[in-house]
Every structure is written in C-alpha cells, then in structure tokens.
Amino acid sequence: MEFVIEPQRVCIEFDTIKEVYQEDSEIKKIENLSNPPTLFDVTIQISSGPTWDYAQKKEVYMKGKKPGWPFVDWIKPQKVRFLLPPTFPDDPPLVTWQNDISHPNIIPFSSVDVCNNVIKENWEDNKNLALSIRACVTILKNPNPDLGYGGNQERDDALRITKKLGFPKDHLLERTPKKRSRLKLW
C-alpha cells in the first residue's frame, strides 16, 4: 500500500514556509520544485550570531587555514533541499545540504546526515517544515561539536575549532516560532 501525503497537509506546510520566509531575513529564497509542493530548495545566508562575528574578525583559528575559516564559508549563501516523504508528517522531511561545507553537524549532499534533533531524532507529527528550515539556520549560527560527524579532515578541523571556541552558545537556543492554529480541513 502506497502512502500519499494529504493535500491539505501540503497546503498547510506550504503556508508555514511562506511565513518563515516573510519573518526571517536569513531565509533568502524558497523555491518550490514540485507540484504538489513536496520538494523545496531553501537558500540561507546568516547575517548575525556568533559564527557571523567570528567570520568578521577574520582571525586564524587554526594553523594552515585561511583567516576566518570555517566561519567565512558558513556565512556564504547555503542551499538546503527539503523533500517531504510519502509518510510525512509521521516522518520528518529529508534534508540535503546542497553546498560543499566544512561544518561539524553537516555532511553535504547526504539526505541522512544533517545533525539536528528537531529534524531527525525528536521528530513528532506536530513539528513542521518551518521548524526544520529554522533548525538549519540554527545549525549555521550555533553549531554543536558534541553532536558532530567525523571521518573528514575539514569537518574534524571545524569540529575542533567550534569546540575550542565554546560552541554551542547556550544563549542562542533556537527561537520558537509563534504558534499557529492548526486548521482541520478533513
């Protein structure tokens, strides 16, 4: 038996991501790639927070790396793809980072390795696509080296730097979007 996302749920999700785009200046573009809207590319470019501050200082955080690395790469526009699986909202969206990035919580071009508990481990059907998009912004602003991935020299170096600089910054916990009333359309 094939599961199909309820059209009403897709419409609600599409409305929530439009709201995120209007509220968050670091979400630069949301592009719908399918009809019905179940595949989206989201362009994120952070312009505040500790990673932004470290990028602006342009200090050498690790011998042999360019000034500001890895943070200068994180403040460049990042494209993230979101795919709503047929089992959505029971299962979270598949999130794929579309840029090559040296980040402790991201394995680029892999739909299973964006490390954020809002997206993966603690998904509940009351979570929504908007929270997943905001979680990707949070990952860029406030990486968590304690939940980092290894196995890649650049990512390992970024993990060491963020750990040394005291990430995650507890005062930057992900902001909670205002609650929307859920429409019962069925």
Task: Detail the topology: elements first, then pairings.
Layout: H1 7-23, E1 27-32, E2 39-44, H2 50-57, H3 71-74, E3 78-83, E4 94-97, H4 129-141, H5 153-164
Helix pairs in contact: 1-4
What does the model show?
By secondary structure, the protein is of the alpha+beta class. The chain contains five helices and four strands; from the N terminus they run H-E-E-H-H-E-E-H-H. The chain has a four-stranded antiparallel sheet, with helices on one face. 29% of the residues lie in helices and 12% in strands. It is elongated, with a radius of gyration of 17 Å. It has a single domain (7-172), classed as Roll (Ubiquitin Conjugating Enzyme), CATH 3.10.110.10. A hairpin with a 6-residue loop joins strand 1 and strand 2. Mean pLDDT is 82; it is low at 172-186. Helix 1 packs parallel to helix 4 (129-141).
